């Protein structure tokens, strides 16, 4: 089997690439290194089954030099907290349009990384794949990310309906672990660990009472592997997440990470960053997954509890910090 990963030098892409190469499949990886790093590719960059292409997927000619059975499309702009909504909308659309064009040409399947952010402000948790998608007003630029992923899901399903393009859509719930970007781009675990390593206050956005259900990256990758290799995943949508009882509020996450990195009984300095710092902003108050579908249909079984995943991630980030 020949697989192409877009965004291979990023967090999830590099962890996934390692697993696919270990399995013995041939892999082409593309990245423009805007957020990913060559460091993430180092363990396998010279492997005979791996080819790396550095380039911008918004360029319609880039994919001409590739051919694969499956394209795992991970390259993406994210929530524009510190970045541009226009870039999120335009780049995500252009990249996906080029990837779809290539999949139709090669008759390959697309495995698309959508996000739990598409469930938005729906107050009815847990979210299953048929739940309503409740976004806020378009004047709030953070919804540009979820909107771009929703257009993506719709485009893919429309191309399936009209041209029989095969697909699997994956909705990830906050993944963390080794190779994560150590800025806000990488999520709260990355920032909190980095703040503590640098001896700075822990920066928590909002009041910290918003909840998330985080997924250790090996579990995220386990879910993606099911979506690549299990035939039953074809032409369907799956949440990829931890069990719903892993829900945690962001402030408690900060305390948990502090406790794992410091002496018992010491108290962290938590700095609340008001949402108004990001302009007109809205957050999701509770984000809880229902993973019944991927468990029952594809045999997915998350293996990591939050504390276990955090310990591995902290160890990795500490070593990176020392370099
Ligand atoms: N990490 C999470 O918790 C999470 C949650 C929900 C959804 N997702 C989705 O999963 C995917 C992977 O996320 P990640 O955390 O690994 O992100 P990441 O930023 O670490 O990886 C994405 C990679 O894509 C590359 N890239 C971006 N634009 C590109 C372009 N125009 N051309 C070529 N390469 C480009 C970046 O350099 C980066 O290496 C994304 O689509 C993201 O939206 C991630």
Overall description:
The protein has 323 residues and is of the alpha/beta class. It is 36% helix and 17% strand. The protein contains eight helices and 13 strands. The strands form four sheets. The protein has a seven-stranded parallel β-sheet, sandwiched between helices. It is globular and about 60 Å long. The two termini are 37 Å apart. The model has no long low-confidence stretch (mean pLDDT 97). Bound molecules: nicotinamide-adenine-dinucleotide. Residues 7, 9-13, 30-36, 56-58, 74-76, 78, 91, 95, 113, 115, 172, 174-175, 181, 187 line the site of nicotinamide-adenine-dinucleotide (NAD).
What features would you highlight for this structure?
about 325 residues, binds nicotinamide-adenine-dinucleotide, 7-stranded parallel β-sheet, single chain, about 15% strand, globular, 13 strands, two-stranded parallel sheet, Rossmann fold, alpha/beta
């Amino acid at each position: 089997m020949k697989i192409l990963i877009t965004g291979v030098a990023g967090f999830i892409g590099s962890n996934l690439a390692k697993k696919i190469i270990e399995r013995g499949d041939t892999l082409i990886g593309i990245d423009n290194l805007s957020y990913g790093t060559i460091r993430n590719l180092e363990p396998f960059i010279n492997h005979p089954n791996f080819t790396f292409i550095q380039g911008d997927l918004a360029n319609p000619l880039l994919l001409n030099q590739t051919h694969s059975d499956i394209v795992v499309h991970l390259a993406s702009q994210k929530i524009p907290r510190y970045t541009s909504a226009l870039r999120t909308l335009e780049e995500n659309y252009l990249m996906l349009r080029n990837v779809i064009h290539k999949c139709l040409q090669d008759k390959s399947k697309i495995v698309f990384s959508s996000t739990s952010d598409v469930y938005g402000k729906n107050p009815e948790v847990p979210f299953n794949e048929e739940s309503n998608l409740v976004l806020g007003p378009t004047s709030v630029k953070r919804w540009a990310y979820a909107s771009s992923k929703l257009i993506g899901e719709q485009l893919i399903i429309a191309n399936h309906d009209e041209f029989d393009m095969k697909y699997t859509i994956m909705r990830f719930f906050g993944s963390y672990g080794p190779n994560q970007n150590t800025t806000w781009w990488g999520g709260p675990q990355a920032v909190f660990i980095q703040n503590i390593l640098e001896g700075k206050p822990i920066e928590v956005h909002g009041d910290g009472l918003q909840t998330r259900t985080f997924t250790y990256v090996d579990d995220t990758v386990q879910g993606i592997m099911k979506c690549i290799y299990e035939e039953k995943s074809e032409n369907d949508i799956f949440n990829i997440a931890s069990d719903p009882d892993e829900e945690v509020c962001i402030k408690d996450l900060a305390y948990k990470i502090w406790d794992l990195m410091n002496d018992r009984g010491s108290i962290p300095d938590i700095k609340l960053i008001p949402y108004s710092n990001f302009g007109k902003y809205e957050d999701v108050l509770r984000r809880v997954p229902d993973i019944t579908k991927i468990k029952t249909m594809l045999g997915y079984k998350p293996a990591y509890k939050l504390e276990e995943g955090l310990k591995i991630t902290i160890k990795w980030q500490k070593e990176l910090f020392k370099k």
